[in-house]
Design goal:
The protein starts with a helix and ends with a helix. With about 180 residues, it is mainly α. The longest helix is centred in the middle third of the chain and has 26 residues, at about 95-120. The chain contains 6 helices and no strands. The protein has helices at about 1-25, 35-55, 65-85, 95-120, 130-145, 160-175.
Length: about 180
């Protein structure tokens, strides 16, 4: 499992670097996005990945990896929004946003390590297309929870679903590198 931890960190470093650079370019403009808007952005990325996996012809020269990075970063933004709430104007410095990013990833990675231990790294035998489908399923669940005003009867909350999507996207990126 040491390989998994290092591979996870390598993927997250790529995602984090892009997040920080976009924060430098755009600031924290994403802080005005409501959760359903972030969920829809993640949905668009996951749908594009599925389309790339199913279609032979590509009209935009970007592959699955950049879309998985987008899923990870949008999920982190959503986790931050869940805690801090939506604002009318950007309010986070690069340093503050990066600190929150690292906090959310730390919690999400620990969840992955715990589940990975219990499931015996079953994800290593999965196809990238299956991980994509699981992300889409989680998105449909999140949309339903959002439509239910955030309430669930017996299911995990929105945060757990965003965390699972991050972890599935990391696993997919590890597979794509191998």
């Amino acid at each position: 499992m040491q390989d998994t931890s290092k591979q996870y960190d390598d993927v997250i470093k790529t995602c984090r670097d892009l997040f920080v650079n976009k924060m430098k370019d755009y600031g924290s403009a994403w802080r005005i996005l409501r959760l359903p808007s972030l969920t829809d952005q993640i949905f668009i990325k996951a749908q594009r990945i599925r389309s790339l996996q199913q279609n032979d012809i590509r009209k935009v020269d970007e592959g699955e990896t950049s879309e998985f990075i987008g899923i990870i970063n949008y999920c982190i933004m959503a986790l931050i929004q869940l805690d801090k709430g939506v604002v009318e104007q950007p309010d986070l410095s690069v340093e503050e946003a990066t600190e929150l990013y690292d906090e959310k990833i730390g919690i999400t990675k620990q969840l992955m390590m715990d589940k990975n231990h219990d499931y015996g790294e079953a994800w290593r035998e999965m196809r990238v297309s299956s991980l994509t489908d699981l992300i889409l399923q989680k998105l449909l669940r999140v949309k339903q929870i959002e439509d239910n005003a955030g309430k669930t009867l017996v299911s995990e909350g929105i945060d757990a679903n965003y965390q699972d999507m991050i972890n599935y996207a990391v696993f997919a990126m590890i597979h794509l590198k191998e």
